[in-house]
Design brief:
Blueprint lengths: L4 H5 L2 H68 L4 E6 L5 E4 L1 E4 L8 E2 L4 E5 L4 H12 L11 H4 L5 E9 L5 E7 L1 H51 L15 H33 L1 H16 L4 H33 L7 E4 H19 L2 E6 L4 E4 L1 H18 L8 E9 L2 E8 L7 H6 L19 H11 L3 E6 L4 E8 L5
Parallel strand pairs: 9-11
Antiparallel strand pairs: 1-2, 1-7, 3-5, 4-6, 5-6, 6-7, 8-10, 11-12, 12-14, 13-14
Helix pairs in contact: 2-5, 6-8, 7-8, 8-12, 9-10, 10-12
Length: 494
């Protein structure tokens, strides 16, 4: 997808790249000026120290022998190669000796350090200009004499230097300086290096934007396209994950997890709606028919009372069913208002077993509990007891068809980093793996359980409660019978 320049600048990648380039340019320019200024100050200070040493040596020579010795020392040093400058002139500025042929006008007028670098020419460097002047004379052109420094102004201006100007007691003028060619070349090298680094980093920023920014734009475009499909109602779509493990992958994985959760909740809502429409239709129809049959004939008070009592019983069962559906939905959605505390799981198990012992005895089922030591989890005691009650009630009901003496055993142990609460019966069980995975869904009742009372929500509620506690509910073959295992995290984290 091609974008115009204004559209590109509205993207996050382009803005970040532009901000990076701007900040780097500011820092780089500041660094160039700082390094250039620092190097200039350092080189200037070093040059001044060198000049001061030369002045001290010349002052010692002047004190030793006066002007003749000074002139002789200046003459000797002028013939030596190097960047130092030496000049002795009369009171009018006429150069008498030294290695300087011409100076920028006005240099000798002020005593002390020169305010700024000045240009000059050494002896022998003006030969080219003199040859050109002679050639002009031969061609008939007038050659007007020029003051000192004119040769430097015609053509090349010579070299730059700094110096100190001293006035001797006899009004003679002495100049001691140093050529700035080497320091200037050093500064030029530093400046070029820094500018080259600036250019390379700017190019690097552009390359980063082109490759990294463009890749980020493509990732964002793909996420936006997937988001549009999802907003259109296609919850089966998922955001792309490249496997790079970057921020986009983490965002996509989190959003995909959220979408899967939303799809699960929507599917659950659809199932609940369908189940309510099908499974609750029968008891409601039965209530209506009972009321209609009661009103259609002449009955005595006892008949009306029995009809009302049956209606109340059916209504209570419907209310329990609706409460179970509501609790399952809240627990699966993760916004249940139930509080969690430290729960003594051993005590909760003993209470449930004690509660169902009369029920088991009436059904002819042996109910046993094997609890070796206390176990503590973080959860809600009422919800845990509700889940265990549903499982124990199912185990008692479906163990009566055992070929041996019906028995239900409840055990509590620690294994594989979990606290496992198991309810095992010796009934016919659920041999089919598919049926064991379906039986925890809402309103699912197997064919052989149709004769038993119930709504098909007991195991669904237990599974939702275990999900709320960060655990899981497993249905395993008991050989014979069925083993229902509630696995709690050992530290109670959820």
């Amino acid at each position: 997808m091609s974008l115009s320049v204004p559209a590109i600048m509205k993207t996050t990648a382009a803005r970040l790249s532009a901000l990076y380039l701007l900040l780097f340019a500011i820092c780089a320019v500041a660094l160039v000026f700082y390094m250039t200024s620092l190097s200039a100050r350092m080189l200037t200070a070093q040059t001044q120290d060198t000049i001061n040493d030369e002045v001290a040596g010349l002052a010692h020579a002047y004190q030793r022998g006066g002007l003749p010795v000074l002139a002789r020392v200046v003459e000797q040093r002028s013939r030596q190669p190097g960047a130092n400058l030496y000049l002795i002139a009369d009171a009018n500025g006429q150069i008498l000796t030294g290695n300087v042929q011409s100076l920028e006008p006005g240099v000798l007028d002020t005593e002390g350090w020169t305010e700024r670098p000045f240009y000059y020419q050494r002896f022998g460097e003006g030969e080219l200009e003199r040859q050109r002047a002679q050639s002009s004379d031969q061609n008939g052109e007038q050659n007007t004499p020029q003051p000192n420094g004119a040769d430097a102004q015609s053509g090349e201006k010579g070299h730059n230097a700094i110096a100190i100007v001293l006035r001797l007691p006899n009004q003679m003028i002495m100049l001691v300086g140093r050529d700035l060619g080497e320091p200037e070349r050093f500064r030029a090298v530093i400046k070029r290096s820094l500018m080259l680094a600036l250019g390379m980093m700017g190019l690097g920023g552009l390359l980063i934007w082109f490759f990294v920014g463009q890749a980020a734009l493509k990732r964002i475009d793909s996420v936006s396209e997937a988001s549009r499909r999802i907003m259109g109602g296609d919850l089966s779509g998922r955001l792309p994950v490249t496997g790079a493990g970057d921020e986009f992958d983490r965002l996509s994985e989190n959003l995909n997890t959220m979408l899967a959760r939303i799809a699960t909740l929507n599917e659950g809502l659809k199932q609940v709606s369908d189940n309510i429409a099908h499974d609750l239709k029968t008891p409601l129809t039965r209530l209506r028919n009972r009321a209609e049959a009661t009103l259609s004939g002449k009955h005595n008070t006892a008949d009306y009372r029995r009809a009302l009592e049956g209606t109340i019983t059916e209504s209570d069962q419907l209310i329990k069913t609706f409460n179970a559906i509501l609790m399952i939905s809240r627990l699966e959605a993760g916004y249940s208002s139930e509080s969690t505390t430290r729960v003594d799981l051993s005590a909760a198990v003993r209470d449930v077993v004690e509660l169902y012992e009369p029920v088991a005895e009436e059904a002819g089922v042996s109910l046993q509990a094997n609890i070796e030591s206390p176990f503590t989890v973080v959860g809600n005691r009422e919800l845990v007891a509700q889940a265990l009650s549903n499982i124990v009630d199912n185990a008692i009901k479906y163990s009566t068809d055992s070929t041996a003496a019906p028995a239900v055993r409840v055990s509590l142990e620690r294994a594989d980093g979990h606290i496992k609460l198991a309810v095992v019966d010796n009934g016919q069980g659920i041999p089919d793996d598919v049926d064991r995975s379906r039986v925890t869904e809402r309103f699912v009742r197997l064919e052989k359980s149709r004769s038993q009372p119930g709504s098909g929500l007991g195991l669904s509620l237990a599974k939702a409660i275990m999900t709320f506690h960060g655990g899981r509910l497993d249905l395993l073959p008991g050989n014979p019978g069925l083993s229902v295992v509630m696995s709690f995290p050992e530290r109670g984290e959820h």
